[in-house]
Amino acid sequence: MPPFLVLDGLTKTFAGNPVLRGLHLEVEQGEVLALLGPSGSGKTTALRLIAGFETPDAGALRIDGEDVIPLPPERRRFGMVFQHYALFPHLTVGENVAFGLAGSGLSRAEREHRVATSLALVDLPGFAGRRVGEISGGQQQRVALARALAPEPRVLLLDEPLSNLDPSLRERTRRELRRAVERVGITTVLVTHEQDEAFHLGDRVAVLQGGVLHQVGAPEDLYERPATRFVAGFVGRASGLAGTLEADGAVLLPAEGGSVRWRGTLAPELEGAAAGSAVELVVRPESLALRGAGAPESLTGRVIERRYAGTATFYLVRLEQGDRNGAEVEVAAGPSAAGPGDRVGVVPGEAGPPPRVFRAQNPEGPSGVSVSGAETTT
Amino acid sequence: MRRHLPLAALAVALLLAWIVGYPLLMTLVEALGGPAGWTLDHVRAFAERPDEWIALWRSLWISTASVVLAALVGVPLAFLFERTEFPGRRFLGAVAALPVALPPLVGVIAFLFLYGESGFVSRVVQTALGLEQPPWRLAGPGAILLVHAYSMYVYFYLFVRAGLSRLDAALLEAAASLGAGRTRTLFRVTLPLLRPALVSASLLTFMTSLASFSAPYMFGGGFRVMTTQIVASKLNGEVGLAQVETVMLALLALLGLWAMRRADRAEGATGVRGIAPARRQLRSPLARLGAGVLGWLLAGFLLLPHAVLLLVSLVPPFTWTTEWLPPVLALSNWSGLLTQPDKLRPVVNSLWMAAVSTLAAVALGFAAARLSATRKGFLSAALEGLIALPWAIPGTVFAVALATTFGVSQPWLGRFVLIGTPWILPLAYLVRSLPLTGRGTLAGLRALDPALEEAAASLGAGRWRRLWTVVVPLLRPVLAAGAGLAFITALGDFIVSIVLYTYDTRPISMEILSSLRLQDLGMAAVYGVLLMTAGAAAFLLWGRGEAR
Fold first, then answer.
1. Does residue B317 contact residue B343 with C-beta atoms inside 8 Å?
2. Is the dihedral of CA B110, B112, B113, B114 positive or negative?
């Protein structure tokens, strides 16, 4: 049986700028897929193509084997929750939820019942008579969800559904959203630039950048086995170290007065790469540990910043790597592992995912800490 | 959202071009002799007559002086009502906007009844001082400027008040914390921030007085401005000359528009939004009394024209001669309106013509705005330009242009004889109303979040259902306000009616004019009160739309 929803080579260009280049994705029935990427990655365009608000230059969109590209949005039966909710301000909460039920062949009583159950699903029973302007932002978000779900759509589309909420509200609303979607069991595509949101809500996460799909997989796959250097940097925190690939797959890193050999897992792009290739070893803060300066197989450096973040403390270490400008690496350790200005040795730790090795993007310069994406303390 | 058929946009653009752009083009063509024989005779005739140049110059300086006077009255009033608090502020603040609701011709006759040689105020002064002659004559440029200042200061008043209420208090506090006193803050911070409001009000005042016809027609006498000059030439049968004059006035209007737009562009309007500064409480009892007295005096002055119209409408013909208060008050004028079909006829005429033109203007304005807003490029710009054009071009110009274009039968050129038929006035009103209905709608559509329509689409609503259940309801205040303004403008129109009316379809304004000629002031006042009441109602509707 083919997957329920298939994006097959969707391509879109705006005024000469390609924003989506042959996107291919498959979503199983009842699955939640999160599209994650920075702004301009094409994730929103992908969602608007699925909804039918834009027409692709090439490619197909199949649901249950039927290509829906020729259908206008009103005939696709896809529900959507908009970033700013787009609730109709001239209608009540109940009228908003009932909007999609017109022409559904339901009787008046059935429609009222459907509105009531939809509002109950999002924990807003008895809100039908309220005006949209009278309710809070979090409640508006839930009304938008109830409205999208009421006509029993085939697919639910969520466009940055939580970005408009106070940070204090966001986590609770996210849990409620997750629960509501699970209860309905609807196939869902979600767009977000927040890694936390994508990891929490998505069964699988697709990372986009520059209109290209970098990787799609479970959150653990993305974090522990990123397919590309971009994913490694965008999902979670990571430091990059320039080195040379050895025949046995280890990486030779230049160190003060010589070099050290560290091990990592090779990214797919390095399949069959020759020994001696310039590579970059990308490592999570929690995969490193601090030792005394000069410890065996360690990279020596000086702590230039200590940042206490509750669940962990992050140490930014500038390495001494011979005549090269030392790279900066971020290490997670106990709150009193070192102080600013201390000379320390950095070694691979016992915990955390193994370092990941990519083809060097810029063989000359050292890499540094990439801190894009939301902070994670997993 | 997917595009509409370009066919619909093209059809609407062509229709608009035919009734808005084409008549202007035809006027230019015929001013140059037309295809029958190109000639510069009419242009030469215009250039050789000093009168023409003088009229052009008068139009220019009267308009400029009107801007200055209106600003001098309107800006201080705006500060008074927006920045200070005193008893009666809210009510008086609303009264201060009232003159804008008075149709120009009605305002002019009210001034005539008040300050004319046998006007109410003139009589009071004459009686009080025991003068042989009326104390003054209400004529010439002074009288025109008085009426302009009375009716147009409202633009400055409303725009500056709106600007002041949007001013961020933090900016004034910043100026104060940097050591600026009140005067310095006013000139270096407040007024520069009000610049967009001031430019808009100046532009509106300038264009309105350039197009002004009622005041120069009634008070000008030999003092002709361009609009009255055109109508005089037309009545004299000098059609070619009238067309050249029309072209010149249109050029002057476009020049004014261009100059003001340039001044506006010099500095990008800053979208300052914040918490408006608190109103200054007038604490000293003397200042409160002063502001109160000043406010009520002003209200009295502003309401006097309305009151005198009502009074005169109750005076039976030829009963009020030399007394300073009318000796007889009766409802005979009003009952005449209902019992004499001849007197009711103009009201019926104006009502149906205004209703038809307003309906058409709302529909066409909405269609053009919608088609313009949902696309980009040349067609969108053309649609926007065509609905805005009648705003920039004086009504007299359109009247002559329509008379030129629809006075001959050349069906293959899109010209049909509409002059002398009941359809020419509704058409002219429609053209003049397009900016009132179309521009507001366009602004409203652009401000509409496109996600609302997308949401409706994703919930299964097709194009028409989206239009009727989402777009139109959300734009209802804008549409109602535009319709109200269009209706009242058409109902009280004088400027195009005087050029295009026929006896059978004579509108209220022409009947006011003939009542005045027959010295039947009471009947003229009855019509004036009708228009005034309709104007106030439309104004309230507009206010509700604005306050949304």
1. no
2. positive
Is A359 in a helix, a strand, or coil?
strand
CA distance B241 to B224: 15
> Has residue B399 been placed in a domain?
no
B473 and chain A in contact, CB less than 8 A: yes
Q: How many Cα atoms within 13 Å fall on the side-chain side of residue A302?
A: 5
Q: What rounded mean pLDDT belongs to chain A? A: 89
A88/B452 Cβ within 8 A: yes
Q: Looking at the complex, report in whole angstroms how far the Cα of residue B168 sits from the nearest Cα belonging to chain A.
A: 25
Question: A84 by DSSP, 3-state: which?
Answer: coil
**The tokens 């990519």 sit on which residue?**
A358
Give a yes or no: residue A11 inside a domain: yes
pLDDT per residue as tens digits for the range B479-527: 988 898 899 899 999 999 999 998 888 999 999 999 999 888 899 999 9
Residue A377 lies in a domain: no
Look up residue A36 and give its two tokens: 């994650």
CA angle A246–A247–A249, rounded 5-degree value = 70
Q: Which of A224, A248, A271 is the last residue of a domain?
A: A224
Cα distance between residue A281 and residue A260, in whole Å: 13
Chain B residues with CB inside 8 Å of A86's CB?
449, 451-452, 454-455
Residue B452, chain A, CB below 8 Å: the answer is: yes
Question: Residue B365 burial (CB < 10 Å; 0-12/13-18/19+)?
Answer: buried
Closest CA to B103 of B286, B278, B305, B259: B305
Q: Would B204 be classed as within a structural domain?
A: yes
Instruction: Provide the residue range defining the domain that includes B215.
Output: 50-233+284-314
Contact across the interface for A100 and B1, Cβ inside 8 Å? no
* CATH number for the domain that contains residue A288: 2.40.50.140
| pLDDT surpasses 60 at B290 | yes
Could you tell me the pLDDT band of residue B81, with boundaries at 50, 70 and 90? confident
CA B111 distance to own-chain centroid: 18
Q: Say if the Cβ atoms of B474 and A74 lie within 8 Å.
A: no
Q: Tell me the pLDDT of chain B averaged across its residues.
A: 86
Q: Are residues A115 and A27 in the same domain?
A: yes
Q: How confident is the model at residue B348 (pLDDT cuts 50, 70, 90)?
A: very high
Judged against a pLDDT cut of 50, whether residue B271 lies above it is answered with no
Label residue A366 by pLDDT band (50, 70, 90): very low
**What value of ipTM does the predicted structure carry?**
0.82
CATH number, domain containing residue B115: 1.10.3720.10
Q: Could you tell me if residue B270 is inside a domain?
A: no
Asked if A12 and A131 sit in the same domain, the reply is yes
More confident residue, A132 or B179: A132
Interface contact flag, A55 B470, Cβ < 8 Å: no
User: CA A212, CA B352: separation in Å to the nearest integer?
Assistant: 62
Q: Is residue A378 part of a domain?
A: no
B537 touches chain A (CB under 8 A): no
Q: Is the pLDDT of residue B52 over 80?
A: yes
Boundaries of domain holding A258: 237-370
Domain count, chain A: 2
Q: Is the pLDDT of residue A62 over 60?
A: yes
User: For the range A224-228, what are the long-range contacts, defined as Cβ-Cβ under 8 Å and sequence gap of 24 or more?
Assistant: A224/A353, A224/A354, A225/A265, A225/A353, A225/A356, A226/A267, A226/A282, A226/A356, A227/A267, A227/A268, A228/A267, A228/A269, A228/A358
Report if residue A325 sits inside a domain: yes
Average pLDDT over residues A325-338: 88
CATH classification at residue A114: 3.40.50.300
B178–chain A Cβ distance below 8 A for any pair: no
Kindly report, residue by residue over A98-129, the tens digit of the pLDDT: 999 987 788 999 999 999 999 999 999 999 99
Of the residues A162, A190, A224, which one is the last residue of a structural domain? A224
Q: Count other Cβ atoms within 10 Å, centred on residue A144.
A: 26
